[in-house]
Design goal:
196 residues, 5 helices, 7 strands, five-stranded antiparallel beta sheet, alpha+beta, 43% helix, globular
Length: 196
C-alpha cells in the first residue's frame, strides 16, 4: 500500500509493506533527513556528470554519438559515485532502454505513483520518494527522484528519431522501450539505496 505525504514542501511517497514482505521502519527525522540530503547530492553529482558527457557527445558527434556515450559512461559514472558516497545509485524506468534499468517491484510501485501524481498536477521535477524498510539483510534507506523529459532528451527518446539515432539504438538496445516521450513526461527515476 502507498500513500502520498509532503516532505519539506516536496511531494514524496511512503511505501508500506511492499509485497507483504518488507515493512517500513521508523527512524529519527535526523537519520531520514541526513540520508535524504546525501541521496539528493549523489543524484545531483551523477546527473551532472552524465549530462556533461552527453552534451559533449552531442557537440562532438551528434545525438547518435550520445547514445554510444550513454551506453558506456552511465554505468561507469553511477558505479564510481556509488563507491565514493557509500550508496547504490542507479536509474530505472517503466519504459527502459537498457534491460538493467528495469524496475523491481517497489521501484515499479513508486514509478506508477509518480505517474499518478503527475497526472494529478504535481510538478514532475519535484517528485521524490524516501523510506526505510526492514529487509532480510537489515534496514535499508530507499530514495527515488523522478526524471522529467526535457527538450534535449527528445533527440534520443522522442516520438520521431533521426535515422542515425534509431540505427544506433537498434544496434545497442534491440529491446528498447524508451521512445515516444514528450517534454514533461516522466522518463524514469534515479534510485539510491543504502544499508543502515
Amino acid at each position: 500500500m502507498m500513500r502520498a505525504i509532503a516532505i519539506a514542501g516536496v511531494a514524496a511517497l511512503v511505501l508500506q509493506g511492499c509485497s507483504g514482505q518488507e515493512k517500513t521502519v521508523d527512524v529519527s527525522p535526523e537519520v531520514m533527513d541526513s540520508n535524504t540530503r546525501e541521496a539528493r547530492e549523489g543524484v545531483k553529482v551523477f546527473f551532472g556528470e552524465l549530462k556533461g558527457e552527453l552534451v559533449s557527445a552531442i557537440q562532438a558527434g551528434g545525438p547518435a554519438h550520445a547514445v554510444d556515450v550513454c551506453n558506456t559512461k552511465a554505468g561507469e559514472i553511477a558505479a564510481r559515485v556509488s563507491r565514493e558516497r557509500g550508496m547504490a545509485l542507479s536509474r530505472v524506468s517503466l519504459k527502459n532502454r537498457n534491460p538493467g534499468n528495469a524496475p523491481n517491484d517497489w521501484q515499479r510501485d513508486v514509478l506508477e505513483m509518480f505517474e499518478k501524481d503527475k497526472a494529478a498536477g504535481s510538478d514532475p521535477s519535484k517528485l521524490e520518494y524516501r523510506t526505510v524498510v526492514a529487509t532480510a539483510d537489515g534496514n535499508q534507506f530507499r530514495y527515488m527522484k523522478a526524471i522529467p523529459t526535457a527538450e534535449v532528451c527528445l533527440n534520443c527518446h522522442g516520438a520521431e528519431l533521426a535515422p542515425a539515432v534509431q540505427a544506433k539504438i537498434d544496434e545497442l538496445y534491440p529491446d528498447d522501450k524508451a521512445t515516444g516521450y514528450a517534454v514533461g513526461d516522466l522518463r524514469g527515476a534515479f534510485v539510491v539505496t543504502r544499508d543502515l
